[in-house]
Amino acid sequence: MSSVKTAYDKARAEGRAALVGYLPAGFPSVDGAIAAARAMVEAGCDVIEIGLPYTDPMMDGPTIQDAVHRALVGGAHVSDVFRTVEAVAATGVPTLVMTYWNPVDRYGVDAFARDLKSAGGAGLITPDLTPEEGGDWLEASDAHDLDRVFLVALSSTDERIEKITSVCRGFVYAASLMGVTGARTALDTGAPRLVERTRASVDKQGLDLPVGLGLGVSDGAQAAEVAGFADGVIVGSAFIRRLLDAPDEASGLAGVRALTADLARGVRREL
Question: In the prediction, which pLDDT does 64 show?
Fold first, then answer.
């Protein structure tokens, strides 16, 4: 069974949403990213996403672009992504890689899946890969027993959502905002409807897939709002902001821990 799905099921059994945290590998350094991700786990994250730094992150907002740029300038490589995954997965929390498709294609799809599995990774989130273009990945993920998480968006038709959910494993990633990623002061009002439409598609096909909502959550209050209608609350830019704004690594880790604790209370709707 999918370890990611198991984490979502555990959260649901506790009467709450799952908390999913994202950080790019190599930021603020390879070891710094590992320390920050572990702090997120210790403070309450149920699933961790590790971003693969990419030179042309078109779907990412300025906060993630800044972090990714710093990781690349620091020399982050695909091998560092696998090293980070291995270290974080050793905590026992399911660890996914979020990546644009080109680095995986260049690495070799089956080789990437093999090495990700060897590192203890749970699967891939592929924001720019469509099911129609993902044949090699569908085969490799089956061969290596990895989750595959595709994105649905506000602009997705019901037919498109059905196609995307039919090939997902682990969970479905609902992108609540049009445009690039980044923390927002308010969530898009279409988010509950997107989750509702996605769940309807999942139910129609007889699938057992949770729906995680991402792109915009920045604090515990927003996490509580999302936890009222989604199975998972996905947070990325807000964590990165804590590290970017910190005067030193120790302060950054403290900030990440504090934010995680706030979000963890939010997914339990304890605010």
Answer: 86
Mean pLDDT of the chain: 92
Per the domain annotation, does 67 fall within a domain?
yes
pLDDT given at position 245 = 95
Rounded to whole angstroms, the maximal C-alpha distance in the chain is 50
Domain containing 112 equals 3-262
Distances (CA, A) of 17 to 73, 125, 145, 169, 257: 36, 19, 25, 18, 19
Domain CATH code at residue 242: 3.20.20.70
Which tokens is 154 given?
């506000």
Number of domain units in the chain: 1
Give the pLDDT confidence score for residue 271 in this predicted structure.
Answer: 44
Query: Is the whole model's pTM more than 0.90, yes or no?
Result: yes
What positions carry a catalytic annotation?
49, 60
CA distance linking residue 161 with residue 101, whole number of Å: 20
